[in-house]
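Complex record, two chains
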Amino acid sequence: MADSIALAILWTLATYGAAGFCFALAFVFRGIHCIDPAAEHAGLSFRIILLPGAAALWPILLRRWILAGAKP
Amino acid sequence: MSTGYVAVQWSRHKRVYDASIAIGIALYLGAFVGVSKVLWQGAHGISDEVILIRALGSCAIVLLHVILCIGPLARLEPRFLPILYNRRHLGVITFLVALAHAMLAIGYYHGFGVLSPVRSLLTSNPNIDSFRAFPFELLGLGALAIMFLMAATSHDFWLRNLSASTWKRLHMLVYVAYGLLVGHVALGALQTDRGWIGPALMFVGLCTVSGLHIAAGLQEYRKDRGNPTTTPDAEEVTWVDVGAPNEIPIDRARTVCAPGGERIAVFSTGGTISAVTNICAHQGGPIGEGKVIDGCITCPWHGWQYRPQDGCSPPPFKEKIATYQVRIVSGRVQVSAKALPPGTPTTPVRIPGDMP
């Protein structure tokens, strides 16, 4: 693989991952109950377990969070 | 079932299961390293790092084979059901073993140059258009990415919030990961080591996984074909023949297939017959292979429960599954092919001659 392509892939992944991690922190501690009320009183270990998945799937969760926030 | 989330719903069974996996992995790694050190000595000696890389990689492959075999095995032989219950923990552990293999391999082979290890990995082998010299590491990375996604979304939160069908589709990617890993091993370790044991073991593994899936699929196909259906009645409801009441085992079910292909679990309990969908609301488990415990139909996969008469989970749980009308005509149990909305109450049919 050419070095320029490898660099582009790595930068894309790093940017996506960094954005995802920041989003995941906000989501598991602030936004999770907006899309799933059952998570409102969940403990710290549950929230930490969700961090990797939230960081990986953050565009889906962000959309769900915005839609849930828009509901009256 | 869901009233609130916890990180892990520990039970004694899960602790024993996880401890067994941990002990099994430790024994495997120890045995692999020990045997390798005896076999590869002197001029043919292999460094400890490489032995550990191989031990972890082969361990992840073995675990993935076990994961893929559990489903069809449990379908073919119910005695294997207990090892199906906690398969998600096995999946997470498999990912962690594969991750350890990848980190060690990337660090060892690409960690001492000018470029960063991952950048070196991506650029060190440019033969992307060659079959035999293809950079097999990329196949392994692809499999690892899928295994990460599966491990990261293994909690029930994801099942509920991604929807059961999306979650299931995501986790069916395990077969793609398996294909990538077969390629990773075939183009990597099996080409480096010219012996016959590695290819033979991979071939046996591949045949076992595909053979069990084909056997389980054939069994399901035969079950579905064997169910005769009756003609529509005056109200144009199609009734599916289930058999005589005493042919349904007490506190268990007989599963029949509706003309549309949906499976219906018909339970006999407390002298009555009732029917629900065969698909559990949790992970799509085969409810018809479960049994009635404390008056509730209990899914064999994770123990989710539903009342036979309305398909609702007992309070405080709120899950619901579809129910079906049942009748007994000329000594034969018949179930309506039309599913009622989840949680719809039905009147269980009392078996004639069975006193309350």
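Note: Chain B touches chain A at residues 2-8, 116, 118-119, 122-123, 125-126, 128, 135, 148-149, 151-153, 155, 157-158, 160-162 (CB under 8 Å).
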